[in-house]
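Narrative progress, year one. The postdoctoral researcher (J.K.) led the effort to move from monomer predictions toward full complexes, under supervision of the PI. The following entry was the first complex the group processed end to end, covering 657 residues in total.
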Amino acid sequence: MSARRAESGLGLLLSLIQYATASGSVSVQDAAAHFGVPEARIREAVVRVFMAGVPDGAGDFIRFDIDFDAFEDQDLISVTMRPAFEDETVRLSPREASALIAGLTLVGDYTDAGAERVEALRAKLRRAASQGADTVAVDAPGAPRTAQVVRDAIRHRRALELAYRKPGEPTASRSVAPTRLELRDGQVFVEGVDLDKQAMRTFRLDRIEAVAPSAAPWPESLPPHERAVAGTAEVLATPAAAAMLADYATSAPVEVDGGRVRLEIEVWSEASVLRAVAGCGGDAEVVAPASLRDAMRRFADDALSAAGPAPA
Amino acid sequence: MARIEAEERQFSLLLALVDTRTGFTKQELFERVAGYQGQRPGDALERMFERDKDALRELGIVIDVTAPAGDDSNHESRYRVLDGVLGSPAELQFDADERDLLDLALRVWHEGGLTEESQRAALKLRADPEFRGGLPLERVPGRRVDHAPTAALVQARQRPREAPFAALKRAADRGREVVFDYLKPGERSPRTRTVQPWATVLFRGRWMLVGHDVDADDSRTFLMQRIVSPVRDRAARTPFEVPEAAAATALAKLEEIWDGATVALRVVPGSDADIRLRHRPGTEERDGLVVIHHADRHLVADELAGFGADVAVVWPEEVGALVRARLERIRDAHGGAAAAEGSAA
């Protein structure tokens, strides 16, 4: 929905005026690729701006003009007259600038750019925005050094030796050709080819204890991605707890009794699902399968034993 | 068809508002802007004008309205584009390294939250023919290995599942109050809140609304995930202004709370909890205990319950009791002690 909204309105018209002028002469095809919209949309916008009656008020406006023959015969946009926005452009709104600044804050540390460069760019964006209240802010996560080593390995196609620890297992050494660093909602994952298993795997960055260069060669081709899902579980939850589980849900929540909702969640690993449900603090209940329900109870029993009795 | 007409009309309105130094009255605009001309005066035309102003505001084009002194009717008010809305195109031109960073920053919001804002920003940046940021990677040139865009190596996504997000932003833009049911962490039933929305903040992976709680008559921070009703908006009883730097101030306050609130844990060495809690900002080891920071005792109790037997709270006892209560509820809900005693029948 929103993807189309931004491109369908006035914004495209304004940007196209600047773009076409700066390009001198540009084909409809190139303009469509540049803006990521269908060619028909570009032609429509050109007609709106350059050929239809732009304000025809009391005669104080001149029309935007293009080379009409070139547009009709060769699908070329070639601006001949631009009476408004000559040396002006609509600035970023405060929130548009905030979106860019917030995005930079979240990812800046994971790029090759130094902290000063990122900060300079943030300052430049602030200056490029029109005045307004500062209404969006995000905290900077700070990238561990491991992330930078992995990123460079991806760029230069070098395999790595990871000291990796899966929950409940001792540290194991894994030969990995990393292909991508993924930042998902504050968690960092390394995607890559497990060279011993010759299969794509995803590693959590915070479970990597050490990283070293590997002598293993870069694989010639990437194996396909497979995702092992053991099944689904049925959960009853309060709406707030359902929102916390939404990432794992395979069905939309359906309201049942007493304000609770029913939803299905993916079971990719029993331990992870138990943790996610327990993290709702008792506001979510596993209904089925029975084995998972039993496991959830044992999880709580074990945790209560570990916590010890309440002090008198 | 309606969309095309609106687009043309709004474009025409914008040019009129940009062209004027002194501003136009509404009547003058109705007479000279294509799309208003020939329309019958009345509520329909007024509503169309309001919608068009909203559409321009969405693009960041703020319309300044000045009324002659002593005149309360809006007949003589003059409309024009506020100074500072238009700038030099050079301000939005970036070198190759900057474009690479912006490309990556835009992609963070592909799936939600600030999607609309980042798409509108991308559209403005694309006025520069060199700017290709935010497009699907296969369409981005320069994919040679050593020149691959950083976005091909690092993929960032921030998904705000929080449905109220868009409604809150819209209300904040228009200076309207919002009303919603809020389930405060640690409470069992939601309460209706009326809030003047100021800012949205992402802190430790959670989106929050910062604003003035009208009933409490004080500023408050709300977790978007815990807004459990649709967000309704209405005209503010008393007009309000968003304080200067509201978002940054709220973020600084959250950092301060985080710094000051600690829980000491016994953690099973090498467990998932051990590794993950050590990566949490501010975590330190003290006397063999893992001391973590948090921003809310109920939220941290939820998180700790999620680590199960891997962690045990040593102090403060208040948090220990909150975690224990959660685990007991989980046990009982899953046929634990209560069912065994037959009380479920």
